[in-house]
Amino acid sequence: MGVLCKDLIVQLERIAPEYLAEDWDNVGLQVGRLDKDIDKILVTLDVTKEIIVMAIREKVDIIIAHHPLIFKGIKKVTTEDYLGSNIQQLIKSDISVYAMHTNIDISKHGLATKLAEKLDLKHLMILKEDKDEQGVVQGIGRVGELPKPISFETLVDNLKSILKCDIIRYAGNKDINIRKVAICPGSGMDYMKQAHSKDADVYITGDLKHHQALEVQEMDFLVIDASHYYTEKIFEEIIHESIEGYAHQHRIEILVPYFEESPIKYL
What pLDDT score does 211 carry? Predict the structure, then answer.
């Protein structure tokens, strides 16, 4: 039966309205037509060449991605670079792309909330607060409390199980009991001081850099870098769960790639 692309977008906006996105971000429909019929959806973290090949093979109508395909301004669309080549392939195959980036980071139904729930955090509050255009307090990240204090090692084991990752980096003092946890999936080190100021025992994020690790150490704080990729992979689960009922009602198939992996490798 299917639906029109514009009607699917209405459902996605209920999860994470586009107006929530940061000013520098680029979310929403990036490739395609609002009047396109949608019968099959592919949900992914990134729109890569491999994802496009899968979308073509499976006759997908729209790709819903966390990271925008088109992020900054582009001056040409040619096959001389990977972005231009990917855009051309998508248009040629009549496959739409819809991005949900910082709007779903900020949304109360977003990545930080989902990870907090998986960790069984209670009494959730926003890590970095802002007011949206309607005057409602929104913001990046979440801070909450565990039911009881746990060790660093127990928290790391829990994270590895939840995120399905083998390697976790950290900086700072791990010889503490952990009760209050701050979270910002993806690249969240810009909000490390907010986590510290909210008296979190640990801050879970990704993309920890050398000089930031030194700062954490000097502050006698604790940061866990569970990687950009693994902390955001739950995006696919959130979208699948959020539109599953709607998709079933309209006989729309939802696919999630089985072959995705972090682009960063360790030896």
Answer: 98
Nearest to 102 by CA among 188, 7, 202: 188
Are 32 and 246 within 8 A, CB to CB? Answer: no
User: Where residue 133 falls among pLDDT bands split at 50, 70, 90?
Assistant: low
Token pair in block for residue 20:
């929530």
List pLDDT tens digits, range 239-261: 999 999 999 999 999 999 988 89
pLDDT in tens, 148-205: 999 999 999 999 999 999 999 999 999 999 999 999 999 999 999 999 999 999 999 9
Task: State how beta strands 222-225 and 202-206 pair.
Answer: parallel
Nearest 10 degrees: Cα torsion 1, 239, 140, 118: 150
What is the C-alpha separation between 145 and 143, in angstroms, rounded?
A: 7
Q: How many helices (H) and strands (E) does the chain have?
A: 10, 13
- Give the E-state strand segments of the chain in sequence order: 3-4, 28-31, 37-38, 40-44, 62-65, 96-99, 122-131, 137-151, 169-172, 177-187, 202-206, 222-225, 253-255
pTM of the model: 0.95
Distance of CA 163 to the CA centre of its chain: 12
Residue ranges of domains in the chain, CATH in brackets: 3-103+233-255 (3.40.1390.30), 108-226 (3.40.1390.30)
Q: Which residue has the higher pLDDT, 183 or 75?
A: 183
- Report the first-to-last Cα separation within the chain, whole angstroms: 48
**Backbone angles phi and psi of 36, in degrees to 5:** -75, 140
Cα→Cα distances 250→61, 212, 244, 257, 261, Å: 14, 48, 10, 22, 31
Report residue 61 as tokens: 């109508």
- Whole-angstrom CA distances from 37 to 7, 18, 90, 252, 259 are 10, 21, 15, 10, 27
